[in-house]
């Protein structure tokens, strides 16, 4: 008689590279989930994330056309991965994927970046209203985000 364990949750991490990605990886370290990553398609990340399932997204920054391309890429990734949870530590790259993932039934977890000590980020301020769980790394931000929880610093 075989015993089968319940399927692991599929978590899609979507964030910019660098510190945002490092925080997201730390936030999910040691958690038993099937982890997928959507971030900038940068050459050096291939070796850094060689053991991960990685999808590339364009950096929309301030271009409406690039936001549209990012949204199309996000839909493709969401339909391919079918995440139970979308987790983001931010930057504009994550907006479409976070909101569309929520609309497609995924839970949304937002971890406000540690760089924001007293003032919210633009991404955090926007995604706060959609998040099922919003975590801040500094207690002073609890005043800025009414439904947030304090999780402590990741880095």
List keywords for this structure.
seven-stranded parallel β-sheet, 155 residues, single chain, alpha/beta, globular, Rossmann fold, 5 helices
Give, in spatial order, the strands making up the sheet with the most strands. 3-2-1-4-5-6-7
Number of helices: 5
Structural class: alpha/beta
**Mind telling me the C-alpha Rg?**
15 Å
Q: What is the CATH architecture assignment?
A: 3-Layer(aba) Sandwich
What is the multimeric organization of the chains shown? single chain
Mean pLDDT: 89
Q: What share of the residues does DSSP label as strand, in percent?
A: 15-25%
Q: Largest sheet, if any?
A: 7 strands, parallel
Task: Give the N-terminus to C-terminus distance in angstroms.
Answer: 45 Å
Examine the coordinates and then state which fold CATH places here, giving the name of the CATH topology.
Rossmann fold
The level 1 CATH classification is Alpha Beta
- Fraction in helix: 25-40%
How would you characterize this protein structure?
This protein is an alpha/beta fold and 155 residues long. The protein has a single domain, classed as Glycogen Phosphorylase B (Rossmann fold), CATH 3.40.50.2000. The protein contains 5 helices and 7 strands. A 7-stranded parallel beta sheet has the order 3-2-1-4-5-6-7.
């Amino acid at each position: 008689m075989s015993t089968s364990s319940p399927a692991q949750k599929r978590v899609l991490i979507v964030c910019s590279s660098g510190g945002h990605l490092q925080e997201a990886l730390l936030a999910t370290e040691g958690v038993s989930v099937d982890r997928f990553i959507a971030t900038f398609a940068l050459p050096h990340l291939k070796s850094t994330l060689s053991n991960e399932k990685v999808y590339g997204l364009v950096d929309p920054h301030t271009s409406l056309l690039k936001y549209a391309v990012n949204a199309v890429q996000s839909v493709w990734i969401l339909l391919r991965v079918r995440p139970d949870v979308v987790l983001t530590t931010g930057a504009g790259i994550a907006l479409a994927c976070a909101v569309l993932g929520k609309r497609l039934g995924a839970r949304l977890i937002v971890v406000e970046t540690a760089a924001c000590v007293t003032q919210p980020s633009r991404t955090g301020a926007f995604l706060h209203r959609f998040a099922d769980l919003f975590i801040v790394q500094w207690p002073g931000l609890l005043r800025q985000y009414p439904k947030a929880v304090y999780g402590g610093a990741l880095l």
